[in-house]
From TrEMBL:
Molecular function, one GO term: ABC-type transporter activity
Membrane-topology descriptor: Multi-pass membrane protein
CDD domains recorded: ABC_6TM_Pgp_ABCB1_D1_like
Organism annotation: Helianthus annuus (Common sunflower)
Protein name per the record: Type I protein exporter
One Pfam family matching this protein: ABC_membrane
Amino acid sequence: MEESGGDKKDGLFRYAEGYDKLLMFFGTLGSIGDGLQIPLMMYVLSDVINIYGNRDAKVTNSTVDKYSLRLLYVAILVGLSAFVEGLCWARTAERQTSRMRLEYLKSVLKQDVAFFDTQEAGSSTTYQVVSTISADSNTIQITIGEKIPNCIAYLSSFFFCHAFAFALSWRLTLAALPFSVMFLVPALGFGKHMMDVAMAMVASYGTAGSIAEQAISSIRTVYSYVGENQTLYQFSKALQKTMELGIKQGLARGLMLGSMGIIYVSWAFQAWVGSLLVTKHNEKGGDVFVAGFNVLMGGL
């Protein structure tokens, strides 16, 4: 199928115009600011914990007001960043997917009649053309409008959590850093496996759907030749593979979630190391606690 605008480069953002690139730029900045929520909040709370944990420090209303204002500033910054993130990415996702739908429909309408005659049965029906436009474009819109900004926000949270952790207690951060890697490895491994299984499930559902579509479109022929039981058997056989893949996907998801039990091991290790740092290296308890919390949240 020929594509209009063949000089465009391949890629997810191939239909992005200058205005869309500007929206994605500000949306990226908003995603980075959204990822700063936990690091900034915990950085402010580290000073609060240090003050409350110090016997000689006097906690007055002015002290409470000072840190309350800091938390308010963090909330305003993160709130504005999240608003810009959602607005810009949702807007550009709608614009780009609308352009994709239009180009797809133009490409279909430009085909010769012979193109539709040479296709397999049921592959060029009006239903499939419409469903392809809606299903695929919706998937791309969700990817651009939700998945990409969430990924940027999580990456921002990962890097800034560890940066603030190093600034507060570099000894504890270095000691607990391997646990962040231990959080990532199961998520990446099982996530890749779950994605492969999901793709196989989509193909399996497509096979079952084609059987049902052919049977419904030729329901009189099926009924005339008493082929109901045979059609049901073929449909059930196609769904059997889907059920097996679903069991594998559930097992992988369970193992991935179960591997998160290492959080308790990490907390125990950080509590032991943190107690040594506070008692023998005179580090502040609030800094040690927040550094350990940032390492955990960054890994998650």
